[in-house]
Design goal:
This protein is mostly helical. The chain contains 16 helices and no strands.
Length: 309
């Protein structure tokens, strides 16, 4: 039966309000089909509802799926539990996306769920066996669980995938140090320095390892070089001060502790150390060229680099 004019107008108005589509074709399904994998769904302003899950509106029955960007935003805001839930939902919809599982692994780790984190990184690696970031952060989770051999095994594979990664040998050194495998740890830190002579943490950590093992004179050049690369980290100055103090170089130690306090006036360890050495009545000290010792690290690195070519 042909509709009268008033009914036809009402039908047109209904289409304008809710949208009309061809028979059998859902407008939302069409939008989903063209949505990029990394940004599936529209951003939603999430909030807690009675401590359980999230909802755009407490009374809403249907919510837009969370996007990758929503999860990243929650992670960057350090809302790790929220980020974990978002990436769990995201990976359920996009199980083929290794980056989604990687971000789930990071978020779960930061929220304290090591088992979920480990599983997520393993899934990411099954999807993409060359996903170096997953190897690196999976090894951190394993180190936190004191599973050092497992961590080293993952890092060994990561080295084969990316021989230029600095984080891989640095983490290997951490695992070896925890196992009291000092020679292996020293070699790993030196590999990191060969890859990048301006990696201050590898320089500092190697120097500190020497200091802890009683090889004080070996520690000083690396600690001096770490400060040269980044003078804004108070711990670097404090570590150098302790090395110099152990060598009986109290004037140099005093200057190092003052450097730590210049970098951070609230650094209490350096304040206590400075007070201690200030009370020492030492005699005259021979000149000590820290810059020259730091240059020695550069020369050692160049030799090692040439040997690896």
């Amino acid at each position: 039966m042909k509709p009268n004019g008033k009914v036809a107008v009402l039908l047109l108005m209904a289409c304008a309000v809710v949208g009309c589509s061809k028979r059998g074709e859902s407008p939302k399904a069409k939008a989903d089909a063209t949505t990029p994998a990394a940004t599936s769904g529209e951003p939603v302003a999430f909030k807690h509802v009675d401590g359980e899950g999230f909802a755009e509106n407490a009374a809403a029955k249907v919510t837009t799926p969370a996007s990758f960007g929503d999860g990243e935003a929650a992670y960057q805001a350090k809302n790790y539990s929220d980020a974990t839930k978002i990436f769990e939902e995201y990976t359920a919809r996009r199980p083929e996306n290794a980056w989604g599982h990687y971000m789930l692994g990071l978020s779960a780790w930061k929220s304290g769920d090591l088992a979920k984190s480990e599983n997520a990184f393993e899934v990411a690696l099954r999807i993409d066996p060359k996903h170096v970031k997953s190897y690196i952060n999976l090894s951190r989770v394993l180190i936190e669980q004191k599973r050092f051999d497992d961590a080293i095994a993952k890092l060994t594979v990561a080295t084969e995938v990316d021989a230029e990664s600095i984080e891989v040998p640095r983490l290997m050194a951490r695992a070896y140090t925890a196992q009291n495998k000092i020679d292996e740890a020293v070699d790993a830190y030196r590999r990191a320095i060969v890859l990048n002579e301006r990696d201050p943490w590898s320089l500092n950590n190697l120097g500190l390892l020497f200091l802890e093992q009683g090889f004080t004179e070996d520690a000083v050049p690396y600690l001096a070089k770490a400060i040269e690369v980044n003078p804004n980290v108070p711990a670097f100055h404090n570590n150098l001060g302790m090395a110099l103090e152990h060598m009986g170089r109290f004037l140099g130690a005093t200057e190092a502790y003052k450097g730590a306090l210049a970098a951070d006036p609230r650094y209490e360890k350096a304040r206590q150390n400075l007070a201690r050495v200030a009370a020492v009545k030492g005699g005259p000290e021979e000149p000590f060229d820290l810059a020259a010792l730091a240059r020695g690290v550069d020369e050692e690195r160049k030799v090692a680099r040439d040997e690896t070519k």
